[in-house]
Amino acid sequence: MSGQHEQSGSGQAGALQRETRVNHPPRVELPPDNQPLTPPIYQSVKYEFGSVEETVRAVHGKRPGFFYSRSGNPTVRQLELLLADLQGRDDALACASGVNAVAQALFTLTSAGDHVLCFAETYGPTRQIIRRFLARFGVRHTLLSIEDLAGIERTLATVPTRLVFFESPTNPVTKVADIAAITRLAHVHGALAVLDNTFAGFHQHGEYDVDLFIHSLTKYAAGTGDVMGGVVIGRHELIQAMRPDWGLFGAQLDPHAAFLLMRGMKTYFLRYRAQCAAALELASFLAAQPGVERVRYPGLPTHPQAALARAQMREFGSVVTFDIAAGAEAARRFTEALQLFAIAASLGSTESLVLPPQMMQPRDATPEQLAWSDIRPGTVRLSIGLEDLGDLRADLAQALAVAAAPG
Description:
By secondary structure, the chain is α/β, with parallel strands linked by helices. The protein has two domains: 67-265, Type I PLP-dependent aspartate aminotransferase-like (Major domain) (Aspartate Aminotransferase, domain 2), CATH 3.40.640; 268-404, Alpha-Beta Complex (Aspartate Aminotransferase, domain 1), CATH 3.90.1150.10. It is built from 14 helices and twelve strands. α6 (149-158) packs parallel to α7 (179-188). 44% of the residues are buried.
């Protein structure tokens, strides 16, 4: 048939029994000048070479190629290289979820006796990994506020520290970390600077001297809330040093998930910029509403770190956090009255989401740490999707009216 280019997998195919042939089907090879526009999914666990010698060389990293998908897969590798390039680095390691990326990075980079500097304004599971799991293996930590630069400098100057783990903007109240100052202090005192960059996206903060960027691919990479993944991005030498331990956790990203994530990345900039523009509009709207005590969105001039945000970021993310003055019960009524915002975790997807204060209060915090986290009784977090801006504005207005009504 014209246009097809096929090669049989074996010259003995005709002599093989059907039970053998279904496991050794004919191969279809593409000519070098005939490539698919959409990369194929290498949905295979195993790969072979032509000899034992070449197989051993590949397993020992002495030649390019793939042997077992727990150690590497072509589809996953393409996603890693794409994300590394967007972040301004040359290598990356992908895995099954954002939390897994956090956990594997922390476990592969620390040993018993090490010290980690972390912050109250951090994603809950990250704090729990550091405070519960790493502590079991003799890794110590200090917990500060991301705004306490003097405390950061004092801690690093007095306690030998392996790494500084932080976020910017922070989850959920969108505090903006001084990335240049934190990375400088970390490096002056011999520590690695690790930044969870999920809120900012893959195209921001790459110009800073961050050693490792961590992203939950479940958010902006996928964009549709139907696939999970995580990635750690950094310079090649550091990523390669992490790679042997990384594979031992067995939480590799599935090739089909990697394909879906690459498909999502095709619309990443369109989605991210549209969501940021809508978030800014809705943040401004909320700031003018009675009953709203304050709105925390880095793009607003009223944000406590607005100048720093403008200096560090080109867009300010899709998360808008605000406080309902009447407190937790009013925030609950507001949340349940929303019709277009799903009460759901995550962010960055095409649908808008809401989290009430009842789902964000840290349960492992001291009163001082709770004050640092800045999650108040009426704090609500919105993740803005791609619905019509007027519809979202109207939905927020009617829910605020419900929240303000006498109970």
